[in-house]
């Protein structure tokens, strides 16, 4: 295998910093109760999530049950990983259960896609590593100095990941099958953020008419927490991400590139810029220019305390509240997990039987799918199919714009139900 090295001086910032000599602990195993990136967040099981989201519904039935003629472990589904970043990245894949892909780590140049297959019973995650340097052996760093081979997402300095990655890392998480014949997936910032990410559900490639009938703008979340890749407010440049003009994605229009530039709480920056001169620790409002590539640790990953990780005496929704990091992360990426008990506004549930594509650095705007189509997605989870009403609403551009605007307003600090109601009155009178 040819040597893979980092280059310096990229305008994107992905390769702008020198390697850090970081001593890594032994990678966590899939059976560990801690999270995949060396923190201890608690994560509900998919069956628990389903019961929580559709509590009080009638017994679940779905055409996916009839469609599934073989055990999920005997079905192979596509898992594609695409790099839309301006620099190389090194995606990593962790299999927690089921049949995983042949390769668990590889280099992707800008514009490249790696196609693999996983078993229909696969449970795992995908993340991107940045600023890596590996020797021909695949175990780094190439300098031989020890420490991490990658600045973010490193997994024991191995190209082929033997376990979980080092925080911070933006995660795409999948449970492809369950006892309710459903697939669960999400974008997670619970362990921190390093790269923008999007997930495309490959509905049309499933051969399952139940999946093919689902509008694609209900299933393809995007999270962009990097200001250089965030389009201006009002842009709809990625409204057809994995979709089309008939079914435009609801895009969050509430945050500006300047907000995204500084959304990460100051102490949680992986490498906070230093204040010039006197060396006094900078206040968040000092307006110090942050780097383009600015990975952010979650409060759980940084401090490893129960109140941030939803563990110990804080292991219930009533005793674990979102931290400042979680609140900020949710503003930037409304469809992403921001802390362990963020299920209702973070989990996507569709009938099982389809594959996925994970896209790094999808430029445009973050999506706001679950706030816009929450009722429709709960109905889809309950019944297992997209009704005519769901399909019609998914094509209603006016509904998408109005509902998305109301959801964005409600998410802002100090917003109230009254302000949202007034907005709807203005829309109605317009």
Automatic annotation (TrEMBL):
SMART domains: THN (SM00205)
Protein name per the record: Osmotin, thaumatin-like protein
Residue ranges, annotated region (Disordered): 1-47
Top-level lineage group: Eukaryota
Residue ranges of coiled coil: none
